[in-house]
Amino acid sequence: MNPDRFFDAAENVRTIARALYVGVRDLPLISPHGHVDPQLFAENQPFPDPAELFIIPDHYIFRMLYSQGVSLESLGIPQKDGTVGETDRRKVWRRFAENYYLFAGTPSGIWLNHELCELFDIQEKLNGDNADDIFDQIQAKLAKPEYLPRALFDRFNLEVLTTTDNPWDALSYHRQIKDSDWDGEIVPCFRPDGVTDISRADWQANIEKLSEASGIWITNYRQLIRALEDRRAFFKSMGTVSTDHGVQEALTLRLTEEEADRIFQKALKGNASAADARRFTAHMLMEMARMSCDDGLIMHLHVGALRNHNEQIFKKFGPDKGADIPIVSEFTVNLKPLLNAYGSERNFHLIVFTLDESTYSRELAPLAGHYPALRLGPAWWFHDSIQGMIRFRERTLETAGVYNLIGFIDDTRAFPSIPARHDLARRIDSNYLAGLVAKHIINMAEAQKMNYALAYGLSREMYRKQ
Q: Among 3.20.20.140, 2.60.40.1120, 2.30.30.30, 3.40.50.300, what is the CATH number of 11-44+146-463?
């Protein structure tokens, strides 16, 4: 792999970018939001095979293959009922290899090239002809102690890895990790969407799970609030520093307790309307912000994905199968109630992510450039890419600066992609700042300080202060 990959073609910019990158290349990685399964580190067993490592947990990969007519069944993706179509992982890997050309120029292709080369010392491009040989090379390495999950965590120089967990989760794998003799830090994140979104088909079942976990039988709105507060306290005792909320829109509003309970009772009876669900979710975001002011947990707000767009795939395979599609979002009006109530609170930190790039310069950067509690999450999901990162910098830096941002967050389910993603972000930021130095907009000392903040400092300050 070219050591100057992703740097500018102009030699003067490339030289500066190289110097800036060297200054951040080896900094520890903070992964404060993601979906890696903590069971990996609790049990610390070898990864079964290359398909299980690269393909099956990563919807970035199988969504591209599906778009070209490769069925999820043929890729060994488990169905909701536990059925697995293709069980021969070597065949799954061959299908992936035969279609590897599809990822050229995409962020997935960039991450995969990094993983194969840097992690497994694969020196040739994967294709159908060499698929079996590369499968065998990776399989042989996965059997070695240095490729166990905990060993890779240490090799990646991960300072902390955050998982995403339901509020009723007993966090038994997290407890197992804490009780082990390994010092790697894996912390849970509190994600209450399963009980704050009353439109979900599994909402009543989730309320029962929350009741059992909290010891509070939830039959009204006030009991829901008490149960959530109880579970937040438990999560915090287990090392949690953040909550996560995935919503279609950023609407926030304050309901009276009577109105909230009225909607809650309708939901218990199965009579809540879509309008009820929209208002209840908006109110619960206000309640989550209030609780964050009390307990100090950072509040992540992920906005703008229409979940499970492909209904056939959702019915057969469930959520998170690459069929969540961006929609138009609005923040200035929708967040006004929440920011007016809590946006200046010293103990409150709200980090907003969006899939609607048109809001970067029009709404989000001006909001973050004013409210002390608000920070902007990085280019997220479909925009976690070379051009996506560049657009994010171009549209936010002049209004919000660097220090109202939060650095890089990988948001991945594919554990081995974490260092690849961070490396790409560090290279792109180094190159972007090099361009500002070359134009004499900032000097080299300022660029070095800004680059350190984006690569490590901002995340360290926000997520490790507790």
A: 3.20.20.140
